[in-house]
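Renewal narrative, Specific Aim 1. Our central claim is that a sequence can be written position by position from structural information alone. The example that follows is taken directly from our test logs and has not been curated for this report. It begins with the structure tokens describing the chain, in the order in which they were read.
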């Protein structure tokens, strides 16, 4: 078993345990035991529950970025990337839902998840050809994290097989942020178009929350 396979197996076991027994009982040791994995190797690769969650986020990002659309507008590319990330979450839905329900009850967990969401937002932006560096990059990451949080709200209620409700929410949020970005174009908040397409409308690359401020809404931590 390769390291990647080992990590994916342990992470999957952790989310299964989180769904069945609650996240307070999840640890690297309990996940390794559940999956029948070597304890020493689990200890070397995972320092604790936080490492499991961070690895899950990295796996979700990798899935979203691998094979994502490379053509179309920035909005189209981000829509594709975000929906691919939701597809990954869907494979661990029960565990993710349990985690999001637990987060507000555990001090420090929700803010930590929000920080991890910002980390992921940077990778997703770069994957869509939008710079996540500097001050404007930080604003873009916060805006995309807010779009993601809006989508998570819809995803938690979405019982459709094709996640059509989630798709609609994400599309609405991205459209709204595109409109808001256009208003601030003269103020320099809109990034330059990604190379090699300098003529692409720059307003499509800046993001805000469709209704609340451009930060993940309270009570809706990211993952």
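The sequence written for that structure reads:
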């Amino acid at each position: 078993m390769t390291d990647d396979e080992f990590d994916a197996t342990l992470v999957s076991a952790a989310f299964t345990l989180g769904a069945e027994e609650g996240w307070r009982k999840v640890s690297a040791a309990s996940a390794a035991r559940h999956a029948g994995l070597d304890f020493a190797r689990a200890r070397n690769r995972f320092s604790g529950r936080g490492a499991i969650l961070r690895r899950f986020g990295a796996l979700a990002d990798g899935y979203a970025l691998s094979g994502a659309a490379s053509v179309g507008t920035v909005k189209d590319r981000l829509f594709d990337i975000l929906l691919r990330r939701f597809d990954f979450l869907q494979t661990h839905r029960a565990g993710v839902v349990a985690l999001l329900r637990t987060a507000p009850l555990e001090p420090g967990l929700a803010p930590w998840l929000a920080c991890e969401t910002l980390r992921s937002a940077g990778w997703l932006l770069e994957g869509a050809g939008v710079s996540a560096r500097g001050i404007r990059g930080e604003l873009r990451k916060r805006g995309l994290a807010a779009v993601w949080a809006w989508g998570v709200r819809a995803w938690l209620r979405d019982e459709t097989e094709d996640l059509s409700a989630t798709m609609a929410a994400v599309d609405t949020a991205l459209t709204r942020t595109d409109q808001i970005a256009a208003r601030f174009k003269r103020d320099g908040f809109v990034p330059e178009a990604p190379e090699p397409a300098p003529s692409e409308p720059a307003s499509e690359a800046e993001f805000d929350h469709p209704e609340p401020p451009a930060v993940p809404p309270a009570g809706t931590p990211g993952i």
